[in-house]
Amino acid sequence: MAAPSSFDAIVVGAGPAGTTAALGLAQKGAKVLLLERGEYPGAKNMFGGMLAYCPTPERLIPNFWENAPWERAVTKRVLSVVGGESSTSLVFHASSEGRLQGEVGATVVAGASFDKTLIGFTLFRPLFDCWYAEQAVAQGVTLLSGCRVEGLVQKAGAVCGVRVAGEHDVVEAPLVIACDGVLSFLAREAGLHAGREPHQVALGVRALYLLSEDEINERFGLKGREGASYEFLGCTRGIRGGGFLYTQTDTVAAGLVVHLDSLKEKQIPPYELLEHFVAQPPVSLLLRGAQLVEYSAHLLPEAGLRMVPKLYANGLLVAGDAAGLCYTNGLTQEGMNLAMTSGWLAAEVAAEALAAGNVSAAYLARYEQELKNSFVLRDLKTFRRAIDFLHRDQLFTVYPQVVARLMEDVFRSDGHPKRRIAALLRQAMKGRVSLRQVVRDALEGGRAFLC
Q1: Are residues 130 and 39 in the same domain?
Q2: In this predicted model, what pLDDT tens digit does every residue of 125-143 receive, in sequence order?
Q3: Are strands 316-318 and 175-178 parallel, antiparallel or unpaired?
Q4: Which residues 6+ apart lie within 8 Å of 308 measured at CB?
Q5: Per-residue pLDDT averaged across 373-397, rounded?
Q6: What is the CATH number of the domain that holds 364?
């Protein structure tokens, strides 16, 4: 390992946030060491499969989305409410501007005419993270994989390096950027948070199924490199959370994201919950005959703005999942785009601090202000009530059953006179939820999503 004084900054974690931070700093002329505990970037990352479009990497790498190794562009999104054997779905198809044009082979021609803001990209983190880290290395970043960071080096109340496992157990630099995941032991050691609680964290479990490209296109109603995302509510056996399906080129990712405290309370093993999910229609129909090739699990930040710690200390910045930058608003779950943007903003502020020779907390505090000015913390603030609202158990138990019963009665034709929708709704609610509770939840939901 290089001498302790040879780097201007150390970035811990070669995920989207860490690599973006390292690349941004390198482009500003800083000497950057990027440390990754996996055998290679992405080796230890479980990811459901979709990244919402983000302009940040295009600021660092020209034609980023034309060259990055993504699988499909998601032009179709489906939200399904599952109750027993029935499901009710809301389907969104991107407009013609969101459709892909000008495709050649496995890539999209630079300048292809499509509106990226309407879509997301499915991808494999091991491939994507490796490629992205290679771009950083090509611009001067020193990448060291298989390196486990065990703690911080602090002198006179300031972070000035990290302790790593191995013969050379200390690496020093004026500035450290922690992108070490949702638990972020580095941020905790620096006193920026007191540890993560079960109600702040979700568990993501994912299975990967092999299907041919033609089979995926036929089953999901796609063509070319178009992709689809399916989100499911009411599929988790009463545990707060939801399910997903994401299409890649010749695989489908199927999985669940569930609140850790709710999972602990129900005492259902995650693999059993996942098996239950993929056995339910319509998931089982979409996966029929598919070959299971991989299973993985990962912790995710789930508490939104309330989970975001103090983001800076003397000689230290925190970005990505380590900063709790992830949210679910009931329709979408976003994280990688927030991570990349936080990494970029951390690099901008860090470069200025290094140039000024001032890495004090007072100087680095501008990083938090930059996040507040960006969509990152503004989105977390916008959906802070939605995140709280989604911790209501009845959303995942009672209401999916009510929706299923209502829709079954609406479409039932049995030779008897039709009843009004209001009467059918009252029948669907009977014995499940009171009108008072429905009104209360409707008002709270309105405040969470509309106000």
Answers
A1: yes
A2: 999 999 999 999 999 999 9
A3: parallel
A4: 323, 324, 325, 377, 380
A5: 91
A6: 3.50.50.60
Q: Alpha-carbon dihedral of residues 268, 270, 275, 281, nearest 10 degrees?
A: 80
The model scores a pTM over 0.70? yes
Shared domain for 374 and 430, answered yes or no, is no
Q: What is the pLDDT of residues 263-288, one digit of tens each?
A: 999 999 999 999 999 999 889 999 99
Residue listed under structure tokens 């609140």: 259
345, part of any domain: yes
Residue 446's domain comprises 397-450
Nearest in space to 118 (alpha carbons), one of 99, 98, 91, 96: 98
- Are 369 and 424 in a shared domain? no
Angle at 315 between CA 313 and CA 316, to 5 degrees: 55
Give the count of domains, the chain. Answer: 2
Domain-embedded: residue 259: no
Do 347 and 25 meet the contact criterion of CB atoms below 8 Å apart?
yes
Helices H, strands E: what count in the chain?
Answer: 17, 22
List Cβ neighbours of 62 (8 Å cut-off, separation of 6 or more): none
Shortest CA distance to 99 belongs to which of 75, 64, 69, 120? Answer: 75
- Is residue 45 domain-shared with residue 156, that is, in the same domain? yes
- Rounded to whole angstroms, the Cα distance separating 59 from 75 reads 24
- Count of alpha carbons within 13 angstroms of residue 307, beta-carbon side: 29
Say whether both 57 and 151 belong to one domain.
yes
Do residues 166 and 126 share a domain? Answer: yes
Residue 273: inside a domain, yes or no?
Answer: no
Rounded Cα gap, residues 339 and 199, in angstroms: 21
| 407-433 confidence digits (pLDDT tens) | 999 999 989 898 999 999 999 999 999
Domain shared by 372 and 430, yes or no: no
Whether residues 323 and 374 share a domain: the answer is yes
What pLDDT shows up at residue 256?
A: 94
Residue 109 above 60 pLDDT?
no
Q: Which residues pair with 47 in a beta bridge?
A: none
Query: Mind spelling out the 3-state secondary structure of 271-331?
Result: HHHHHHHHHCCCHHHHCCCCEEEEEEEEEEECCHHHHCCCCEECCEEECHHHHCCCEECCC
Residue 423, in any domain of the structure = yes
Provide the pLDDT for residue 1: 43
| The pair of three-digit structure tokens given for residue 21, joined into one six-digit string | 């931070």
- pLDDT band of residue 168 (cuts 50, 70, 90) is low
